[in-house]
Amino acid sequence: MKALVTGGAGFIGSHMVDFLVNQNIETTIVDNLVNGRLENLAQHSGKITFYNVDISNKSALDSVKFGNFDFIFHFAALADIVPSIDNPMAYHAANVEGTLNVLELAKRCSNLKKFIYAASSSCYGIPKQYPTPEETAIQPQYPYALTKRIGEEYALHWGKVYNIPVISTRFFNVYGPRHRTSGTYGAVFGVFLAQLINKKPLTIVGDGFQTRDFTFVTDVVEACYKAATSNFRNEIFNVGSGNTYSVNQLAELLGGEKTYIPKRPGEPDCTFADISKITSMLDWQPKVKFDEGVKLMLDNIDFWKDAPVWNAKSIEQATSTWFEKLS
User: Which residue has better confidence, 180 or 36?
Assistant: First the structure.
């Protein structure tokens, strides 16, 4: 069995590679290392094939031998809200054109059993229903969410028109070891852990009572593999933890001092996946409880020792476009 993981040196992608290698599946990775790190793959030296390729560069992507993959896991993407507002064309190139390029090359795979698209729960925007089912209205609030949604539409449409067996998995607030540490202000775990290791206050947005469906990365990876090895195609599955947790609760589990910063526009007060579809159709269940997952993060806290350390002032500067454009 052979698999391709785009974005395989990144956070979720590298955990997918771990899983595939452990399953003795011959694994190829495509990653431009903008957010990915070769250190995330070091434990598999000699066991994998790596291409330093940007998926938005179609001619470069042509260098990858696409004829014989059984599975394609498409995780490569640009993430985060503010950069997508500042530079939407880069997000369109990576998340839309890049996805289209990978889909076009997937048509060469005569033995392809599944194309797994990593979609985002951000496509729901600020939903009216919790837990949020897959049929909920789509209302992206910023360019990142929009480009991930357009990529999903392309994947499902190519599945129907070109007979590619596609499944889209909508991830909710994924966290775990190797969580991104880029210079961009973004996901809460990367921010909090860098602050914690540097003995700085945790910057809690708003009153901290907003909740998030924090889903551990190994659960996400297992869901993707279940989808890949299933008999279903052209389906959308939410991938969540089965619960939702407040940011204050996260801060208490992490410990340390806390400070509060202004609530941001365009963010839901809650994310909470309805996972009844994936649990019933794929017989998948999340395994890692929230307190266990947070402890695993603390056990690996040294990973964030060189990550950017944010404070209220630097966050205000970094998110000024956010307030300006989304208010």
Answer: 36
pLDDT digits (tens, 9 = 90+) for 37-76: 999 999 999 999 999 999 999 999 988 988 789 999 999 9
Cα–Cα distance measured from residue 219 to residue 222, given in angstroms and rounded to the nearest whole number = 5
Among 117, 142, 144, 185, which one carries the catalytic annotation?
144
Please answer whether residues 160 and 219 qualify as being in contact, where contact means their C-beta atoms are separated by less than 8 angstroms: no
Q: φ and ψ at 139, to 5 degrees?
A: -150, 75
Q: Is residue 141 located within the same domain as residue 254? A: no
Smallest CA-to-CA distance from 195 within 210, 214, 181, 209 is with 181
Q: Are 87 and 200 members of one domain?
A: no
109 shares a domain with 49 = yes
Structural domain that includes position 105: 2-174+214-239
Same domain, 125 and 163: yes
- pLDDT tens for 182-224 read 777 878 999 999 999 999 999 999 999 999 999 999 999 999 9
User: What are the structure tokens assigned to 92, written together?
Assistant: 């369109």
Which pLDDT score is estimated for 185?
80
Number of domains in the chain: 2
Task: For residue 71, give Cα distances in angstroms to 41, 95, 117, 205, 298.
Answer: 19, 20, 11, 39, 33
CATH number for position 158: 3.40.50.720
144 assigned to active site: yes
Is 7 strand, coil or helix? coil
Mean pLDDT score across all residues of the chain: 95
